[in-house]
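Replying to the earlier thread about multi-chain prediction with a worked example.

Input:
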Amino acid sequence: MSLLVALAVLGGLAATAPLLTRILGRDAGYVLAAGFLGVAALLAAHAPAVLDDRTVDWSAEWIPSLGVSVALRLDGVSLVFSLVALVVGALVLAYCCRYLSDATARGPVYPLLTLFAAAMVGLVLADDLVLLYVFWEITTLCSFALVSTAGAKAAGPGRHALVVTVVGGLALLVAVVLLTLATGTTRLSAVLADPPAVLASPYAIPIAACTALAAFTKSAQFPFQSWLPGAMVAMTPVSAYLHAATMVKAGIYLLVRMSPLFAGQTAWSAVLITVGLTTALLGAVQALREHDLKGMLARSTVSQLGLLVAVIGVGTSTALAAALLHTMAHALFKATLFMLVGIVDKETGSRDIRELSGLRTVMPWTAAATAVAALSMAGVPPMLGFVSKEYLFMGLLSADVTPWAGPVAGALAVTASALTFAYGARIVWGAFGGPVEQPELYEPAPAFLAPAAVAAVVGVVAGPAVSLLDPVVDSATTDALPGSTPPSVYAWHGLSPELAMSAVTVVVGLVLFWQRERVDAALQRLRLPDGPALFTRGHDALLALGGRVGAPDRSASLAAHLARPLLAVVALGVAGAVALGPLPGRVDVGDPGRWVVVALLAVAVLGTVLSTRTVALVALVGVTGLVVALWLLLSGALDVAITLLLVEVLTAVVLVLVLRGAPHRLPAAGPRRWPTAVLAVAVGVVAAGATAALTGRRELSAAGTFFLDRAEELTGGTNVVNTVLVDFRGLDTLLESVVVGVAALGLLVLGTTTVPHPTDTDDVLLRVGTRLLAPGMLLLSAWLLWRGHDEPGGGFISALVAGIAVALRQLASGTVPTRSWQQPGVLLGAGAVLAVGVGLAPLLVGDALLTPFAVLPFLSSALVFDLGVWLMVLALVVAVVQALGARPRDELEREGVAA
Amino acid sequence: MTAAVAVGVLVAGGAYLVLQRGLLRVVLGFVLLGHAMVVLVLAAGGDRGGFALPGNGAGAPADPLPQAFVLTAVVIAFAVTVYLLGLLRAGAPDPDADPDDDARGPS
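Result:
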């Protein structure tokens, strides 16, 4: 339970941080630091149990269907990493109280740092793989957000860091999924307790590879290391906390955690040792040629993380103990150095060693603290860094992948360490040595220096007193590598090989420092690949690739978009032709009448596609529609045939309205004529083949039989199609009418740019005919509506008849319905209210939606519903006439008729 | 089998038109594709011979369920067509037009 409390307190602190900063300004950091120490004490209270090789567990269900839970576990490893995160966090927050201005402190820095600490503690406490992944990603996002607070200059480096670490996060997600597949559980402790289940599964290699990738990206290992120096654009407390002491250690934590599964596997060891030592050497060389103090520290962090990865790769208990000890030592001295460099930066306004000189006389305490931390980094006795480096050497020497692995790894580690000594000296000498150039500077306030000084002193004291850490390291190593016997940790091993290696390190380091000008000149000539530039080039290339892949989608040509679904239809047809098995026999009826119709249809369609004049195209499309209506009629679909017939008439009227004044000739077909013809024929063949294969091979469906047999009995209507529309599937019809209404509204919106068409036709026949016909058509419409339930007719058909009357009247006399009750919006609303109202009414008496009932003795609910449909469809036609019967304003303006 | 041929002819014609230049052709291509779908859905209900006409033998009305489906579909297709015509009328630029064509297409 106290684990949950620890996380809840940290989360609560993050949530209240904005409030605290509003009240206390930058001093809110002290409250947060105290909170961190409180949580650290809460976790440390469990230390006796943990050191006794017990664990503290808490869990609650999260996603039971997947077996995912919020499971927390405190063991030796999590104790080490969580205490490092909390103690260093407290120091950094205390440092922030003097580093930040009140204005900056009110920004997002405090909440994000606290949220990060919560995520980091959650990450090391998580005993569920999914939970671990979630916390892992939260640390990535916090890092990105904190880097971004540096403003515009952080855009490039921030993106670099985010992309690299997110790629690692995705790799971790893959590893999590595969681990769960291999073991059947997401519980981390259960997965780790059963290495054979993982190693014997086919996923073993992908799991190891993804885990290593996740750790390498997070912990800035070669070839991903270059994001970390870039992230130094963030303010110094962020660099000290996230990018030196904690977040970059998440990868180290992951590798330590997974050691029970993979430690001792040759490939794992080989990869980790090779990558780790490469990173260590590369980072150290780059640190030694930097001039920016923060840049040196960042590359130093890369180098030290490399040593940690290498030693974890060795995988013996000595090696893991060394990794844990060095994690603590590195967090202490590196956070200290960052904080001190931040002080120098604040006081002098520069971090460039070519501009800094002689600060030891004006800032002696800062100089002393820096020297102490640098000595720890360089591995000089009696600092904690010396002890941990001895163990690193010991661990690397025990590498046994091949007989020569230990000595080679040891030699490379000595080289990296000698370089470490040299750049440590470079940092101290560069800033504090030499003649005084800025005598007006003075020591920072004690409160500013205190957090760094405390950490520096701890680093000194912990060296000789390292045996106090022995039980912690012992317990953590046992948890990291069950069944192993970790070495005892003490400061002095006597005259051992490691001591000799340390001596060589110091001597070579001193020589490098002594010859620093020649070394510097040689290193500056060295041409190393520029990581950020490579990333930018890769990133740009990726974006360019995406642009090329997406280019067809940005085409302004309709044909480019429409051709692809059509090609997909052809592909589908080919696939279907290959895959379709034997089909039942055809049951259709020989019918010479319909063959004649189809022949007519082919002629009409051919004429349509060949027409070059607008009038011919419109007329032939109309003819095609009429022929299709004829086919429907012969096939026994009377209601559909009538509807289509009316729609064709109405479409023709609308086309005439739209095309008044249009060019008589259509645009020339051009060179795309033949390829599109081939594609069109292919699509047509597929469509015909599919229709032949998949229809006409069964008798009347069960639903069709039911409707034909029972419709009259159940609804009282004899027009079965209409009963399906208004009774059986009324809700469908209602929603489809709404679609029609939406189209009407769309037209009204388009119509706002037009003015009423001022002219009317000279065609006397049309004018007189329309005037005579219109009243009759309205009567016909009413009659069709009334009888629709029993005979062909109904809301759709009758509304189309009425609509033709409206449209013809516009065409003939140029008048549009103008009275308020004739407006499409009003018709639409009235229709919707009627249809919905009559549909909802049965609910009042407990019946289902749209249950038929008698509104009045002679008026069924079906008729009222149909009237609603009638109004909505009529609204569409009125909207069409209003929107399309008018001429666009700009056209009138061109002609000088403008309003 | 008449349905299959009708669908094939209508789809081929519609597909050809929607790939051509000129928005009017595209809109009317969609009209033809709409007709094809009407025929297809109706054919899915099975062929029952249609009405008794000379030479047809005894027929019967088509399956009412697909009829109800396509009846509303015809009206919706009309709504979509007029909306597309509205766009054309409102002066939507024709992306496929040649520079020397009328920039506003056939409106």
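Chain B touches chain A through 87 residues (CB under 8 Å).

Feel free to reuse this layout for your own posts.
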